[in-house]
Amino acid sequence: MKMSGGTTPNALLGLLTLKPMSGYDIRALIPQSIGHFWSESYGQIYPSLKRLASAGFVEKKTQRQKGKPDRHVYSLTEKGRGRLQEWLKLPVEQEVLRSELLLKLFFGAHVSPDVSREHVTAFMEEHDKALKVYAAIVKRLHKEDAGDPQLPFWLMTLNLGRHRSAAFVKWSRETLKELDELERAQKGGR
Amino acid sequence: MKMSGGTTPNALLGLLTLKPMSGYDIRALIPQSIGHFWSESYGQIYPSLKRLASAGFVEKKTQRQKGKPDRHVYSLTEKGRGRLQEWLKLPVEQEVLRSELLLKLFFGAHVSPDVSREHVTAFMEEHDKALKVYAAIVKRLHKEDAGDPQLPFWLMTLNLGRHRSAAFVKWSRETLKELDELERAQKGGR
DNA sequence: GGGTGCATGTAATGGGTTACATGATTCT
DNA sequence: AGAATCATGTAACCCATTACATGCACCC
User: Could you report the per-residue pLDDT of B102-141, keeping only the tens digit for each?
Assistant: First the structure.
């Protein structure tokens, strides 16, 4: 009955607008849809689906299969669509950044600059790779989902990822330069 | 004995390099130091300090006070400094973005474009404000901590915040434009 | 009298991942 | 023979925040 907190159930409702699915299906679909900015594990999915079903937001149908366990396929109800829309309208809570990289960099003076340089380099490579992945997905979406009314929204989410990763790569380059200068100053000043 | 997982204790060791502090002091210092990218609550700080003390990474001294409860002041030990340095050298785990804004935007086709526009606008304003805060802190640091060998590292962490927020603002502007176009197309196409 | 600051700490709660348990089928 | 895929679900655990409990001093 509660069903108040938790964005997980709302994310599930959203995914079920695409098509009726089992918990297993949902898990498998995530990397190809909201995977760049959201994740869900079985430990969240299965109990959430159960609660959504008992609250009438989704409908469960059991498909028997030979050899394999039964598939529990959930589909969105009208009530569920209503709840999804209500949730979509609610203001988004501020997201606070929590970064282990920055924490380590903040205390970087207590170790050799090489250490920080390695961290920043790894970070840069990570986001360099991410940029390529984003580009590939954008290409794929333009081909496979051309004309889909949801496509513009999907591209917007990808664009945020691109802007973000590009900014991170740029920052990394600048920071690496600064770390070099720091080290030269250190060596020169001895 | 365990003390393996958990970046919280390591963050505390880092902060204690600045000066010996009580749990209360640490909490108060965070907004002025690592606050833009890290947070800790009392529920984490006090138990962690206790464990760090019993493992010999910090040393506890009790200062009696009249009227107020005793202050438990912790200072970093040599062993603690060693552990901090070891931790600083460890590679940083990849940080996965988890964004409720993007989740809502992804499903934006199920509600009016106005809804998405409001979310994006709020996001833009949030980061516009953040940019001003960053600028103010940078100014303050240049004045108050000029010459501190840690200053360059502190500025690097702030710079990442600036790059990030600037990218988000830019994305927001572009996205708002796209949402406008979407709406015009919708209206025109009816 | 009531709020705020100092100062400690624990308990309850939430949110999430990982590991475990089960078991048939199909591919290598 | 052994791994991978399909498919469900629970239990243990980790991390973190919030609320609660205590209590004096100071200021309005």
Answer: 999 999 999 999 999 999 999 999 999 999 999 999 999 9
Characterize the bridge pairing of strands A58-63 and A71-76: antiparallel
Write out chain A residues lying below 8 Å of B101, CB-based. Answer: 92, 95
CA distance A153 to B4: 42
Token readout for B124 is 């833009």
pTM (global) more than 0.90: yes
Nearest nucleotide to the CA of B41, by C1', is D17
Residues near A36 by beta carbon (within 8 Å), at least 6 away in sequence: A134, A137, A157, A158, A161, B97, B102
- Cβ separation of B110 and A101 shorter than 8 Å? no
Report the residue count for chain B.
190
Between the alpha carbon of residue A24 and those of residues A19, A41, A74, A117, B88, the distances in Å are 13, 10, 11, 41, 39
CA B142 – CA B59 distance, rounded (Å): 32
Joined tokens for residue B70: 């005793």
